[in-house]
Amino acid sequence: MKLHEYQSKRLFAEQGVPIPRGDVAETPAGAREIAKKLGGPVAVKSQVLVGGRGKAGGIRLAKSPDEAEKVAEEILGLEIKGLPVRKVLVDEASEIATEIYLGVTNDRTEGSPVLIASAEGGIEIEEVARTQPDKIARAWVDPLIGLRDYQARNLAAAMELPRQHWNPFSEMARGLFETYWNSDATLAEINPLVITKQDELLALDGKIVLDDNALYRHPELAEMRDVDEEVPSERKARGYGLSYVKLDGNIGCMVNGAGLAMATMDVITGLGGSPANFLDIGGGAAAEKVAAAVQIILADPNVNSMMFNIFGGITRCDEVARGILIALEKVPREVYLVTRLVGTNEELGRQILADAKMDTALPRWSKRQKWSLRLRRKRSNEHPRR
Ligand code: GDP
Ligand code: MN
To answer: Which tens digit of pLDDT belongs to each residue from 332-384?
Structure first.
């Protein structure tokens, strides 16, 4: 779950990270009021859950409350990467001298949180990593000890920050890390962290991605979810308990198990195709859930073919086959289907599709594999496992 910039910055501020004064408005008149209260020039910033707002015209400076109202009206009429702008953040404008990047995320290879800093702030860190990898400094944080002052100072030194900024920078790094840690985030990012012409350090932009699996520990954060700003198909999928991520390709993928789903996408990409989505229907999905998944995939106009890759364990291939038929009846669209059904009830599943005049891809088992499969089935019948 992603948090908006204003939500992220408020959480940072609770941990002592300095942020610009400002507030959120849903109307141009509201933006005007805030600008009036702040006095002086303001930055009017669209609150949408995607990056690159600046380029899309979603961030504008305004010198007066009148101008703030006018640009807020324009921004509130925008759609950025398909998402409507419903809120703007009106912040006191800053005079920027330097833009820095500072973020914390999980380093899965190291099995540890990592603090990342770069003097190349303002642009996306992925871009910096690609073009100027030596401009990125990292510090791995021992979760039992927490972030040590010297680690933050090392980052400041690596970025060649003037010494007078080392202490305030360390304080911000500590606050950012605390926010990340306390909220079970997978990413907490300040980009840019600016040094103003008045030599103050400020978190100008903020981003937090929370771990959905830990949200139950944070009801107050779960409440911050903004369903208006989520991709509608992803919201719908969540309602059915499906893990679905929309992508830009044309080959819809329906798979059970996250690992197999990712492997399937890799194979498709490796062969020159382009997956339209990630989808894990989970274990033991009933026909209705399968049907919902197929409908969600086929609702994407980019999709012109679909790959079903089912390895039935708890999931039964016959249920999957029934689900496919239910969905195809409801969505009469011409798409190529490639269906692989293997595992529990595979013969039945294939028969159901064959009866509906649909081909399935036959698994090519070796004799030896067939033999061991049969043996395993026999054993599990003798000792049924639940
Ligand atoms: P993003 O493009 O969605 O990441 O939005 P950011 O909040 O990071 O803003 C993008 C850029 O707009 C920043 O890197 C700044 O250069 C500029 N910007 C944002 N707020 C202000 C401000 O208050 N004053 C000035 N001068 N520039 C700003
Ligand atoms: Mn930014």
So the answer is: 788 899 999 999 999 999 999 999 988 888 766 666 666 665 656 666 565 55
Longest CA span, the chain: 79
pLDDT average, residue stretch 273-284: 93
Q: Is 190 in the pocket of ligand 1 (CB under 6 A)?
A: no
d(CA 124, CA 147) in angstroms, rounded, equals 24
Ligand 1 pocket member 204 (CB < 6 A): yes
Q: Is the pTM of this model over 0.85?
A: no
- The Cα 120–Cα 267 span in angstroms is 35
Q: For residue 122, which atom of ligand 1 is closest to its CA?
A: 14
- Give the DSSP H/E element, type plus range, for residue 106: strand 96-107
* Of 318, 362, 366, residue with least CA distance to 339: 362
Residue 184 makes CB contacts below 8 A (sequence gap 6+) with: 210, 211, 214, 215, 217, 218
Q: Which range is least confidently modeled, 30-39, 128-137, 268-277, 367-376?
A: 367-376
**What is the DSSP track for 267-334?**
HHHHTT--BSEEEE--TT--HHHHHHHHHHHHTSTT--EEEEEEEESSS-HHHHHHHHHHHHHHS---
Nearest 10 degrees: CA dihedral of 168, 170, 176, 182? -120
- Which DSSP category does 134 fall into? G
Q: For residue 259, report the phi and psi dihedrals to the nearest 5 degrees.
A: -65, -45
Task: Give the residue, out of 19, 126, 205, 207, with the most ligand 1 atoms within 8 A of its beta carbon, to mutate for a pocket test.
Answer: 205
Tokens 């973020």 correspond to what residue? Answer: 103
Cβ-Cβ contacts under 8 Å for 320 (sequence gap 6 or more): 256, 281, 285, 287, 290, 308, 310, 312, 341, 349
For residue 386, the model assigns a pLDDT of 44
Q: Write out the two tokens for 65.
A: 């409350």
Per-residue pLDDT at 334: 84
pLDDT > 70: percent of the chain? 94
DSSP class per residue in 79-95:
EETTEE---EEEEE---
Catalytic residue among 5, 69, 99, 101: 101
* Mean pLDDT, rounded, for 180-198: 97
State the distance from the centre of ligand 1 to the C-alpha of 59, rounded, in angstroms.
7
